[in-house]
Amino acid sequence: MSLSAYQILYKKREGEALTKEEIKWFVDGFTEGSVADYQMAAFLMAVCTKGMNVDETASLTDAMLYSGDVLEFEEASVVDKHSTGGVGDKTSFILAPLAAACGITVPMIAGRGLGHTGGTVDKAESIKGFNTEIDLKEFENLLRTKKLAMIGQTPEIAPADKKIYALRDVTATIESVPLITGSIMSKKLAEGARGIVMDIKVGNGAFMKNIEEARVLAQSLMNTAERFDRNMMCFLTNMNQPLGDTIGNSLEIIECIEVLKGKGPKDLADLSLALAGAMVHIGGKAKTLEEGIEQVTTVMNNGEGLKKFREMLENQGGLGDVIDDYSLLPMAALTTEVPAPQDGYVESMDTTSIGLHCVDLGGGRHVATDKIDFGVGFTIHKKVGDQVKKGESLLTIHHNEDQKSIVERLITEFSQKDYKFSNEQTKSDPLIYEQDIRWSK
Fold first, then answer.
1. Domain boundaries, the chain
2. Active site residue 82
3. Is pLDDT at 98 greater than 90 in this prediction?
4. Is 161 a residue of the active site?
5. How far is the C-alpha of 106 from the C-alpha of 148, rounded, in Å?
6. Selected catalytic residue, list 77, 183, 186, 220
7. Average model confidence (pLDDT) across the chain
8. 77 is an active site residue
9. Which of these is catalytic: 80, 161, 199, 350?
10. Over the stretch 148-189, which tens digit does the pLDDT of each residue have?
């Protein structure tokens, strides 16, 4: 049977289920170049609006996974973590060295920013010399000898996802359970992870806006993990406000180093320890999650996690001295405070809007070809439930001289739209809403 992009697009537009052959033909064609960008963009929008059933999602994951090379590890202790993305979400730089210091091998293939969310690779590249583009052979060698490597997507690993990922960022097709499942699982399976810890963000700064949507995604991911005989633990976590106190690439790297030094914001530290503890647990190095958290807390407190972070940087050409001297990171030239417009308490924060403001400053991308300004961003002083006095700083904007007009607009938007205030204290949501585990058979 001959296939065509038009027929497949028409079928999905009408809400019909695609066959495994149709999905593979379309994904392979896009990877090889016979299916055009505009046709894949139409496919993504059709999937986003019409959805995919379980079999279609499985076929999409398979097509993306086997579009490139697949690493194989036999040890259960090869475990990675993935987040669906949020504002100020920087836990990878903390949990990966902590888990590795506890004997877990961490094959971390990270992504760039998507929409309002920051990208792990973008943050990593703010460190001078740190190479996220090492080839697959070197990646595998680092994992087998050093237990930890962090790279962006290589031409060998799920190349279909790399091309599709870039299109999703600029076509408003990010919030789709089948597309998220295919993207995450194709990379995690291709890198050889035997266990996966998922951090599914929930709230106004996440792609999953409520618990129900997040549960649907968690189920889709765990079904896929089970089909490939992988252990998985899913956490549903709060993204109704930024995680930690900083937004922006260099600023977030500094904050992660502070946590590894036993300092830093409590919410970021607590979530990083929980996720790292889960990696140690499902990787077979701890009998319970609680025991896993105890182990990673120990290596944070004794400095072994920070040592592993430095080692990871230097193994990949990065400047390890940034750990001791933050001035070695790119930093914006100026800072401007955003004053509170009234007395009261912070009732809510528009987290997505705050993330997009960082993109406007140059900390993220409007289009795939935009270059990142690693030094810009925000330091947040007030979050949900905090008391404020009129004129007190809500946050600091880190910017450059030529961005003053943007900064003036942001001051207005932060104080009048993005922060909401009340006369009575609002209780913030829990950091972790739910967690679930699925063991392989």
1. 5-51, 79-326+431-438, 331-422
2. yes
3. yes
4. yes
5. 5
6. 183
7. 93
8. no
9. 161
10. 999 887 788 889 998 998 888 788 888 789 999 999 899 889
Q: Which two tokens stand for residue 337?
A: 């405070």
Whole-number CA gyration radius for the chain:
21
Task: Given the residues 12, 81, 187, 188, select the one marked as catalytic.
Answer: 187
User: What tokens were used for 289?
Assistant: 């999650």
**CA 148 to CA 182: how far, in whole Å?**
24
Within 141-292, strands assigned E span 148-151, 195-202, 231-238, 246-247
In angstroms, the CA 2 to CA 83 distance is 39
What token pair was written down for 280?
Answer: 């140690």
pLDDT in tens, 45-75: 999 999 999 899 999 999 999 999 999 888 8
Asked if pLDDT for residue 111 goes beyond 80, the answer is no
Selected catalytic residue, list 81, 168, 308, 382 = 168
Candidate CATH numbers 3.40.50.700, 3.40.50.300, 1.10.10.10, 3.90.1170.30; the one for domain 331-422: 3.90.1170.30
244 CA to centre of own chain: 14
Confidence bin at 136 (pLDDT 50/70/90)? confident
144 is catalytic: no
| 12 half-sphere exposure, CB direction, 13 A CA radius | 26
Task: Answer whether 68's CB lies under 8 Å from 109's CB.
Answer: no
CATH number given to 5-51: 1.20.970.10
- Rounded Cα–Cα distance for residues 232 and 133 (Å): 27
Q: Judge if pTM exceeds 0.85.
A: yes
Residue 409 among the catalytic residues: no
Residue 326: phi and psi, rounded to 5, are -70, -15
CATH class of the 79-326+431-438 domain in this structure? alpha beta
And the tokens for 301? 């407190």
